[in-house]
Description:
Layout: H1 4-15, E1 19-27, E2 37-40, E3 45-47, H2 52-65, E4 80-83, E5 87-93, E6 105-112, H3 115-130, E7 134-138, H4 142-151, E8 157-162, E9 176-179, H5 184-189, E10 195-198, H6 203-214, E11 221-224, H7 228-240, H8 246-249, E12 252-253, H9 266-287, H10 292-299
Parallel strand pairs: 7-8, 7-10, 8-9, 10-11, 11-12
Antiparallel strand pairs: 1-2, 1-6, 2-3, 4-5, 5-6
Helix pairs in contact: 1-3, 4-9
Amino acid sequence: MSSKVQSLKAFFGQAGRVALVEVAATKGSTPREAGAFMLVSASAIFGTIGGGQLEYMAIDKARQMLGGGPRPRSPADETRIEVDEICATLDVPLGPEIGQCCGGRVEVSIRLVDASLEQQLIADAEVEEAHLPHVYLFGGGHVGQALAASLALLPIHVVVVETRSEALEGMPETMETRLTPVPEAVVREAPAGSAFAILTHDHALDFLIVTEALKRGDTAYVGMIGSKTKKATFRNWFLKSADGNQAQFDRLISPIGGRAVKDKRPTVIAALAAAEIMTALVSHAAEAPSSAGAEKAMAG
């Protein structure tokens, strides 16, 4: 399993001299929020501040400071650039002058990264990674594989749980995998605020895992793949045989991904489910008393 922290360390290990490009302040509509950053070397980039001409200008300025290019001409008279030997500030209006129509204004700070700043950035990334919300994906079949690929793009910690070793093959390297004969036990170990997506090859196993998740009461999302008939069958079993109650059952999302799009292709279901899960995680973090760490992790 690889991580953002490992990727960051690898970038620093190979990049040589590096400049930190950070959104220092914003006004109005802007591509990214204050605090968003990217790292620029002479030949590589790590992260983004939103793309477009704003990002191109910042990259040019960073590489000029690194000694990798000529001083770029300002595309607009309103763009103010202040420079010294180790840092620069760009104050950029996001209008038609630079080919962006966001309408806001962004102040970008650029500074050369020394050993102390490098260590601070790595430490911050480790803190951020520790606060990432957890998503537990049960099942590595066709939809599970597609959902894993979609979730791999998001700022979350994904754990794929399976009873079959072959179903874990080919999972994204950024994901943790668990091979276990008792997957429902993994639910009990998950941190509060986790999301659970249940789509195994066995309906009875799905029911056991969903039951464990619904009875926790501190989850951000519990979703099960299936049809109206499967959901009705589970409800009957959950209420009559698993000591569940209606309030707990009402927290179940099934089918995952909603009903608005009538398309059963795995990749489509996965895209819809990933959006659904991310929405639930953000909403849960906003409602939690101590949500600052999780919100920052998801925004980064």
